Amino acid sequence: MPVKTIAFQGEHGAFSESAALEYFGSHIQTLPCDTFEAVFEAVEQGKAEWGIIPIENSLAGSVHQNYDLLLSHALHIAGEYYLRIRHCLIGWPGAKIENLQKVISHPQALAQCRETLQRMGISRTEPVYDTAGAVRLLREHPDPTVAAIASRRAAEVYQMSILAEGIEDHAANFTRFLILSREAVAPPPSQSKTSIVFTLNNRPGALFRALSVFALREIDLAKIESRPLVGKPGEYLFYVDFFGSLADQVVHRALENLKEFAPMLRILGCYPFHPLPSS
Ligand SMILES: O=C(O)C(=O)C[C@]1(C(=O)O)C=C[C@@H](O)C=C1
Predict the structure, then answer these.
(1) CA of 91 to the centre of ligand 1 (A)
(2) 238 with 197, same domain?
(3) Is residue 72 part of a domain?
(4) Measured by CB atoms within 10 angstroms of the end CB, which terminus of the chain is less buried, N or C?
(5) Radius of gyration of the chain (CA)
(6) Distance CA 185, CA 269 (A)
């Protein structure tokens, strides 16, 4: 059986790569990409069968750029995966936490460890495009006063020392990843989630009315996110995830109802739901 290629943003050792390996299994080939946009393009152009992107974190919140990319590209959400994010403070062998002057990492990782860094007396941080890339940079520029935040795997890949482990501000630190594909997966009959995006005409109660199409049918919402509608200041796109499958009559009826007054409605994907693991 040919090996499947999964595109992810970052370098070998990134959390996105760990999520891909856990979701698909270790027999896959991973394709590092510089940007999230490049992940979407790799899947569109057939360089990878699937893509994997972070969409939200339980401490630092949503990855807004990926909501925007879901809209500007025609890929489908084919799955989701929650990864427990355990951050390490990684430095040069012999480096000491008390001598650190700067910590570099992906902005999401810095945000997830902000309070711990403060407690350690480290106030200077610098964003880098991914966590594993921060460790590689550290390796290329030997300096015992600089450390990176990344996974244990990244420390192993670049053979650097772990100065502290589990430095996230809260142990319940999970990032939800989405799996992207060119083709929509067949709606799973049960235990599914569906993701949609829609616009509304701004009038009193518009969002209340939109959400009532789900509430009246007892469809359980999982997440709502709003993003600016580019070109129409003051207007928004609403991204909603709910429990249920496109194969369910009740979901079908809710979406037909929403279409009656939503100027735009797009289904981003219907996929097997992945439970949040316990921390
Ligand atoms: O930099 C990485 O290792 C990534 O995979 C990116 C990313 C993110 O963008 O949220 C993924 C998981 C963690 O939340 C921190 C960083």
Answers:
(1) 19
(2) yes
(3) yes
(4) N
(5) 20
(6) 8
> Among candidates 71, 4, 33, 43, which has minimal Cα distance to 183?
43
| 175 noted as active-site residue | yes
User: Does the annotation count 243 as an active-site position?
Assistant: no
In tens, the pLDDT along 16-63 reads: 999 999 999 999 999 999 999 999 999 999 999 999 999 999 999 999
Please give the number of the atom of ligand 1 that sits closest to the Cα of 130.
Answer: 1
Residue 81 near residue 67 (C-beta atoms within 8 A): no
pLDDT, position 99: 95
Give the Cα separation of 9 and 107 in Å (integer): 14
**pLDDT tens sequence across 231-271:** 999 999 999 999 999 999 999 999 999 999 999 999 999 99
Instruction: State the residue range of the domain holding 262.
Output: 192-272
Asked whether residue 243 is assigned to any structural domain, the reply reads yes
Residue 108 lies in a domain: yes
Out of 116, 131, 175, 194, pick the active-site residue: 175
Contacts of 10 (CB under 8 A, 6+ apart): 16, 17, 32, 33, 106, 129, 130, 131, 132, 133
Q: DSSP per residue over 231-269, as a string?
A: TSTT-EEEEEEEES-TTSHHHHHHHHHHHTT-S-EEEEE
131 lines ligand 1 (CB under 6 A): yes
Q: Say which residue the tokens 């772990």 belong to.
A: 162
